[in-house]
Write a structure and sequence with these properties.
The protein has three helices and no strands. The chain is mainly alpha-helical.
């Protein structure tokens, strides 16, 4: 019985991690199809259609956004590295922490480049 449960856990973990995105994609597709079907029926019956609401404009990324993301990555990376050293656990945490440290460092450096570039343009 324990062997079955030990085998069931990874199967369920992989299955659910694949099933959830598939369900999200399916229901988004179904929602679009129902909306299209509704509009087609309205066109067939001659009902005037209201205009589609416009997409909200995307906010441009500012250098401060990049700095904030960089500091978050640096903080999480440092925390993972320290956690790995203190708890003496799997080195995978160390690798993830170092990756986040390098990503955070790159984002903070990009903030410096972007602000310097903005000062030169103005």
């Amino acid at each position: 019985m324990e062997d079955i449960l030990a085998l069931l856990i990874p199967i369920l973990a992989v299955g659910m991690s694949l099933l959830i995105p598939i369900l999200v994609i399916y229901f988004e597709f179904r929602k679009k199809m129902l909306k299209t079907k509704e509009r087609m029926l309205a066109i067939e019956k001659g009902v005037p259609l209201p205009p589609e609401p416009p997409e909200p404009p995307k906010k441009p990324v500012t250098p401060l956004d990049t700095l904030r993301k960089g500091f978050v990555c640096l903080g999480i990376g440092v925390a993972l590295v320290i956690f790995t050293l203190v708890a003496d656990i799997s080195k995978w945490f160390m690798g993830g922490g170092l990756a986040l440290l390098f990503i955070g460092t790159a984002l903070v450096l990009w903030y410096g480049v972007a602000t310097r570039k903005e000062k030169q343009q103005s």
